[in-house]
Automatic annotation (TrEMBL):
Residues 203-240, 348-374 have a biased composition (Basic and acidic residues). It comes from Phallusia mammillata. One of its GO terms (cellular component) is cell surface. This is Calreticulin. The lineage of its organism: Eukaryota, Metazoa, Chordata, Tunicata, Ascidiacea. An alpha-D-glucoside binds at Y105, K107, Y124, D131, D313. Residues 245-254, 375-408 have a biased composition (Acidic residues). The gene is Calr. It is found in: Cell surface; Cytoplasmic vesicle, Secretory vesicle, Cortical granule; Endoplasmic reticulum lumen. The keyword Metal-binding applies. Its main location: other. Disulfide bonds join C101-C133. GO terms for biological process: ERAD pathway; protein folding.
Length: 415
């Protein structure tokens, strides 16, 4: 059955020329496709598992398994270009470890990359996916490599940080627009040129233009007819009139005594004339703009001549993330349908299993709490019984009877 499924997947890829790469990692031959980098000797190990909660235990992915490690693994596919085509990158991420700091993104490289030499310094075309580090960083990265620079998106896209499986989708269109979806819902979209610094600004301030010397941009001015009231100028602090020199003050040794300073109740602050409309107001001066001579339009911001490798190149403080359901295609419908299937099976099934587990744990806690409460109640009753027994006094008659012995009757010899 597994062979038939694999053949079916292969047939799907081959029969649909718009599907460039697809791997749901559901076969135990995944290690023949995914190659670990040997650029460093201490990369973290990935294990093949469905995780703690799942819809089908055979629906497996790659899970980070060692804390505080870099991970570097990739797989190749037939080289292609997205020229004149839509590019869709999609995969799932499940942070089972309640992640506090770590990457959950993928990188798509040119076919020239040697998977065994992949590292953080390897040039990639696109980096996409969630990244979390503390409460301040919970974002979806969308980074494009352009003319030797890695360009970060200027908008904020918040990622998911719970323990469920989530689907991340990036769509790049040949009209230089894009969209990011999370669980088949739009999270951000717009223009490549506007939301990344691919190109210099179309217009810049005219370096030759200067504000005229007689330009008055003061909307309000002090009233020249306003005069300071008499007696306004009072010091802010005055000597304390109630202070007296201490009896033990020796001016020869301590110097001349001066009373401490206190706030002056008659102090009115700095006087300023009232403001009036400026009769010579010229308005706000706006620096004239000119076309930027360094700007050159590029209709191919979206395009890369060579895609051929997809990989995980990331750091995690706490391991446990499961990566799965990788898809690269030019068919948005295919990606949408794949995501809908994942949501209705994988996501729904693992939630059902998680909810059942949490309910079982809740009942277990309740039983333990009841047992503990019953045990404490029994202990209290035992203590009360012991105290009651200790307080019981023997009857007075019985006690006296024990102390006095009955005298024996006179015997025959004594008579």
């Amino acid at each position: 059955m597994k062979v038939l499924i694999l053949l079916g997947l292969c047939t799907l890829v081959l029969s649909n020329p718009g599907t460039y790469f697809k791997d749901d990692l559901n076969d135990d031959d995944w290690e023949s496709r995914w190659v670990g980098s040997t650029h460093k000797s201490d990369y973290g190990k990935l294990k093949w598992t469905a995780g703690k909660f799942y819809d089908d235990e055979n629906d497996k992915g790659l899970q980070t398994s060692q804390d505080a490690r870099f991970y570097a693994i990739s797989t190749t596919f037939d080289k292609f270009s997205n020229k004149d085509k839509t590019l869709v990158v999609q995969f799932t991420v499940k942070h089972e470890q309640s992640i506090d700091c770590g990457g959950g993104y993928v990188k798509i490289f040119p076919s020239t990359l040697d998977p065994k030499e992949m590292s953080g310094d390897s040039t990639y075309n696109i980096m996409f996916g969630p990244d979390i580090c503390g409460p301040g960083t919970k974002k979806v990265h969308v980074i494009f490599h352009y003319k030797g620079k890695n360009l970060l998106i200027k908008k904020d896209i918040r990622c998911k940080d719970d323990e469920a499986t989530h689907i991340y989708t990036l769509i790049v269109n040949p009209d230089n627009t894009y969209e990011v979806l999370i669980d088949n819902n739009s999270a951000q979209k717009g223009s490549l040129e506007e939301d990344w610094d691919f190109l210099p600004a179309k217009q810049i301030k005219d370096p030759e233009a200067k504000k005229p010397e007689d330009w008055d941009d003061r909307e309000k001015i002090p009233d020249p007819t306003d005069e300071k009231p008499e007696g306004w100028d009072k010091p802010e602090h005055i000597p304390d009139p109630d202070a007296t020199m201490p009896e033990d003050w020796d001016e020869e040794m301590d110097g001349e005594w001066e009373p401490p300073m206190v706030d002056n109740p008659e102090y009115k602050g700095e006087w300023k004339p009232k403001q009036i409309d400026n009769p010579d107001y010229s308005g706000k001066w706006v620096h004239p703009m000119i076309d930027n001579p360094e700007y050159e339009a590029d209709d191919n911001l979206y395009m890369y001549e060579d895609f051929g490798v997809i990989g995980l190149d990331l750091w995690q403080v706490k391991s446990g993330t499961v990566f799965d359901n990788f898809l690269i295609t030019d068919d948005t419908k295919e990606a949408k349908e794949a995501a809908e299937t994942i949501l209705s099976t994988t996501v729904k099934g693992e939630k059902k299993m998680r909810d059942a587990h949490e309910e079982e744990e809740r009942k277990k806690r309740e039983e333990e709490e009841k047992a503990k409460a019953a045990e404490e109640e029994d202990e209290e009753e035992d203590e009360d019984d012991e105290e009651s027994e200790g307080d019981v006094e023997e009857p007075e008659d019985a006690a006296e009877g024990d102390e006095e012995e009955e005298e024996p009757a006179a015997g025959k010899d004594e008579l």
